């Protein structure tokens, strides 16, 4: 239910790099009324020459819009949120596409924006950057975290509908702090490991031969070390404490593997790899069952938020959200245990 | 120059799992006279039903052959080498496809087999196992290490010709101990990192949500943790000291990254990622120049071995080898510096 009964939804995207740009391209391809803006003049020119509607000033891009997606480098998002909130009406929903959520969620709370700002994180990307790397289908089938809160539940519902319908993404409802703990392990620590692997190879006296014999394991394991350094550094710094905590879990497991290897303990080594392999098997072979769930209009917001967060914690996601005068109906997909 | 002047080369493959099986399938597809054998009766039956020539007994597979490829689990290779050597004539070349080389090279030296055994390591694979996962094109374009030694230079030349011609692989000449140090970083440590990442996720209280939000970085970084555990354990144990030494280099870099993150030092973090990114750029964008090099018949074997090992150390490879009465001619490809 993207469109209201009277008028189609009008959208803006502020910050049109890889992620914001892909959001913009998809909204445009879907036929929505959308305008983009980026602080970088060359990016705006690039968008215009690609035939994508782009404003010259941020205020012109967001004026009169119903939904604004906030992109751009992570450290810039608080300031962008304040500026766009000031340039838009109270009815206008705001969401961001940053890779960490707790800090911005707290910031929005302090600024009294929770009723119309929904922290978001589309889990897709490439190791390239900028609008030139953006593609409209980037989010199809990808996880897209949206953080529900009782005060912003109406905004959450409208965004969940938009993201499932227009982007064909799997909406994962999750509290902001939980999100940050999860992505620390699901995304940020892998960037640390990739950096350490590629960095050690770069420094090795055997570098040239190592690159020649780089097996699939090395290529895959170091891939995200090719991401623009500044972007990776911003991402890690934006989630520092959670990343360091998750890293401790990974290095503890690594110590067990190395200890078993050092001791020549084949059984222990095999057992640890069997344990690790279980995660891979779950990743490859997960099956889901569908659950339809409705909440009546005027029901308790905390009940709905609790159910939504339970879906995310269980490894589930939403594929649809319909809002009408009677309330809201979600289509959820929950993994079978295992 | 695979075939001699009189008769086509006759080949056998002993141990026809993923790697040996792919060798067998490629030799068969190339029209060579090849017979396979595996100690597992079901594997032999599977090969027969696929129309691949397979003997019921190892001695029948290798009798009268010019070249035998030795496959199977790493710990079984010394015994296989001894058995196949006893069942074949002095003219018969032997090579293996195991993932570590120094131990088997020393074993062959002690058994007086250096003149006809060339340690080998085709650097290709999948996270599946067995003949059912084997494909004939597995090695096309892949690095295939062969270890040259003065006493086994004639054998090395013939194998280099066979591997470049039939498998379209890039032959990387490298001493056995150097190979093990290189693959420790290029393949084995990535398996440790992948195991640690997947294992930590499996143990995490956030496991289900982590798997749902698993980004490309997590999927790629943990991929080889899905490899059969026993195989990974064998591989690591077969190269223990080199793996632990290479791991120390990686954890040192990881400590630097974590230290910069903990200190909130954005410049240091970005600088480390720029360093890591240089290895990725070199991996993606290497260019090579071709070098033709001949060695006359009766020349000094140590000169030829030194040149060959220099090609491997520089990150180069061979794409051809021609032997005739005048000597040997190699086509080498050497990376441009950078």
Descriptive notes:
- The structure is a homodimer of 338-residue chains.
- The first copy, chain A, is of the alpha/beta class and 338 residues long.
- The first copy, chain A, has two domains: 10-174, NAD(P)-binding Rossmann-like Domain (Rossmann fold), CATH 3.40.50.720; 179-284, 6-phosphogluconate dehydrogenase C-terminal fold (Orthogonal Bundle), CATH 1.10.3660.10.
- The first copy, chain A, is 49% helix and 17% strand.
- Chain A has 13 helices and eleven strands.
- Chain A has helices at residues 18-29, 41-49, 58-62, 77-87, 102-110, 153-167, 176-203, 207-212, 216-222, 229-237, 240-262, 266-284, 301-313; strands spanning 10-14, 33-37, 67-70, 93-96, 117-118, 120-122, 143-146, 170-173, 288-296, 317-324, 327-335.
- Chain A has a five-stranded parallel sheet with strand order 2-1-3-4-5, sandwiched between helices. The first copy, chain A, has a three-stranded mixed sheet with strand order 6-7-8. In chain A, strands 9-11-10 form a three-stranded antiparallel sheet.
- The longest helix of chain A is centred in the middle third of the chain and has 28 residues, at 176-203.
- The first copy, chain A, is globular, with a radius of gyration of 22 Å.
- The two termini of chain A are 34 Å apart.
- Mean pLDDT of chain A is 94; it is low at 1-6.
Topology of this protein?
The structure is a homodimer of 338-residue chains.
Chain A: E1 10-14, H1 18-29, E2 33-37, H2 41-49, H3 58-62, E3 67-70, H4 77-87, E4 93-96, H5 102-110, E5 117-118, E6 120-122, E7 143-146, H6 153-167, E8 170-173, H7 176-203, H8 207-212, H9 216-222, H10 229-237, H11 240-262, H12 266-284, E9 288-296, H13 301-313, E10 317-324, E11 327-335
Parallel strand pairs in A: 1-2, 1-3, 3-4, 4-5, 7-8
Antiparallel strand pairs in A: 6-7, 9-11, 10-11
Helix pairs in contact in A: 7-11, 11-12
């Amino acid at each position: 239910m993207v469109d209201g009964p009277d008028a189609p939804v009008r959208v803006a995207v502020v910050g049109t790099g890889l992620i914001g740009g892909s959001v913009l391209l998809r909204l445009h391809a879907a036929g929505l009324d959308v305008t983009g803006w980026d602080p970088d003049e060359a990016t705006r020119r690039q968008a215009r020459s690609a035939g994508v509607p782009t404003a010259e000033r941020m205020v012109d891009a967001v004026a009169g819009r119903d939904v604004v997606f906030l992109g751009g480098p992570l450290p810039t998002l608080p300031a962008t949120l304040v500026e766009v909130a000031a340039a838009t009406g109270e009815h206008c929903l705001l969401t961001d596409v940053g890779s960490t959520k707790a800090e911005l969620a707290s910031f929005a709370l302090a600024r009294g924006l929770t009723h119309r700002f929904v922290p978001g994180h589309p889990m897709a990307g490439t190791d390239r950057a900028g609008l030139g790397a953006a593609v409209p289908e980037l989010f199809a089938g990808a996880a897209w975290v949206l953080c529900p809160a009782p005060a912003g539940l109406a905004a959450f519902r409208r965004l969940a509908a938009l993201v499932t319908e227009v982007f064909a993404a799997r909406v994962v409802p999750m509290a902001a702090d939980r999100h940050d703990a999860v992505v620390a392990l699901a995304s940020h620590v892998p960037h640390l490991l990739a950096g350490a692997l590629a960095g050690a190879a770069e420094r090795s006296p055997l570098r040239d031969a190592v690159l020649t014999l780089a097996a699939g394991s090395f290529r895959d394991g170091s891939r995200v070390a090719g991401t623009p350094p500044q972007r990776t550094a911003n991402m890690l710094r934006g989630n520092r404490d959670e990343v360091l905590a998750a890293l401790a879990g990974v290095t503890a497991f690594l110590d067990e593997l190395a200890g078993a290897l050092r001791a020549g303990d084949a059984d222990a080594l095999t057992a640890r790899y069997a344990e690790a392999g279980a995660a891979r098997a779950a990743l490859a072979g997960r099956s889901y069952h569908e659950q339809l769930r409705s909440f009546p209009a005027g029901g308790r917001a905390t009940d709905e938020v609790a159910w939504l967060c339970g879906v995310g914690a269980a490894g589930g996601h939403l594929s649809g959200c319909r809002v009408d005068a009677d309330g809201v109906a979600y289509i959820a997909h929950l993994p079978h245990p295992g």
